[in-house]
């Protein structure tokens, strides 16, 4: 699951924008997991791995798109409100910004950690500014696995945010 050198392609950013315009749930057994406060969360079971893929669609009425994108990327702020963050930081490696994130899990489960590339682009589609953030697991020798912590090696995320036409944001995340 390692991105090509140089990070993500322009096509990957455009695909995230396209899904914001027309969510792709057809053709697979996506299950609606929860729908509340204008947010819908779907999941799809991968039969081979037993893991789930998630898609989130919704509108945040009082949060402008630029602010939502900034908050999403702000790891220091995340530490303030997310009680499950044990450790999270960014580090420059080979010209790329790499995120290390360890998540606390309750006993008897083991903590999980992630090492991933993350990039943000602002694109324009049909006259609308769209903020796109892509993330994908990577392997870097600077981030050795820790004993007792399970390394998540198949992490990937696409997030696209645009204005809802008022004061809020329309969002899609996978």
Can you characterise this structure?
Residues 30-174 form the START domain. This is Phosphatidylcholine transfer protein. Interacts with ACOT13/THEM2. It is found in: Cytoplasm. The chain is α+β, with helices and mostly antiparallel strands. The chain has one domain (10-173): START domain (Alpha-D-Glucose-1,6-Bisphosphate, Chain A, domain 4, 2-Layer Sandwich), CATH 3.30.530. It has helices at 10-21, 65-73, 75-81, and strands at residues 31-36, 39-45, 52-60, 85-93, 96-103, 111-125, 128-137, 149-152, 156-163, 169-173. Strands 1, 2, 3, 4, 5, 6, 7, 8, 9 and 10 form a ten-stranded mixed sheet that branches. A hairpin with a 7-residue loop joins strand 5 (96-103) and strand 6 (111-125). The radius of gyration is 17 Å and the shape is globular. The model is unreliable at 1-5 (pLDDT under 50).
- Indicate the CATH architecture: 2-Layer Sandwich
Radius of gyration: 17 Å
CATH class: Alpha Beta
Instruction: Indicate the overall shape.
Output: globular
What's the number of helices?
A: 3
Backbone structural class? alpha+beta
Order of helices and strands: HEEEHHEEEEEEE
- The fraction of residues in strands falls at over 45%
Report the average pLDDT across residues: 87
Q: What helical percentage do the residues reach?
A: 10-25%
**Total domain count:** 1
Stretches with pLDDT under 50, minimum 5 residues: 1-5
Largest sheet: 10 strands, mixed
CATH level 3 topology? Alpha-D-Glucose-1,6-Bisphosphate, Chain A, domain 4
Q: How many DSSP-defined strands?
A: 10
* Gap from first CA to last CA: 16 Å
């Amino acid at each position: 699951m390692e991105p090509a050198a140089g990070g993500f392609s322009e096509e990957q950013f455009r695909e995230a924008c396209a899904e914001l315009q027309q969510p792709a749930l057809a053709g697979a057994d996506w299950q609606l997991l929860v729908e509340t406060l204008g947010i819908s969360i779907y999941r799809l079971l991968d039969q081979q791995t037993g893991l789930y893929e998630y898609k989130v669609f919704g509108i945040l009425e009082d949060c402008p798109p630029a602010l939502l994108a900034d908050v999403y990327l702000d790891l220091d702020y995340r530490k303030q409100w997310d009680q499950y963050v044990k450790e999270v930081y960014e580090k420059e490696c080979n010209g790329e910004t790499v995120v290390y994130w360890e998540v606390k899990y309750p006993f008897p489960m083991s903590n999980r950690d992630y090492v991933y590339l993350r990039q943000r682009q602002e694109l324009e589609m049909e006259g609308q500014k769209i903020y796109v953030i892509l993330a994908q697991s990577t392997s870097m020798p600077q981030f050795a696995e820790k004993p007792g912590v399970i390394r998540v090696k198949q992490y990937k995320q696409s997030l696209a945010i645009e204005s809802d036409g008022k004061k809020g944001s329309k969002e899609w995340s996978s």
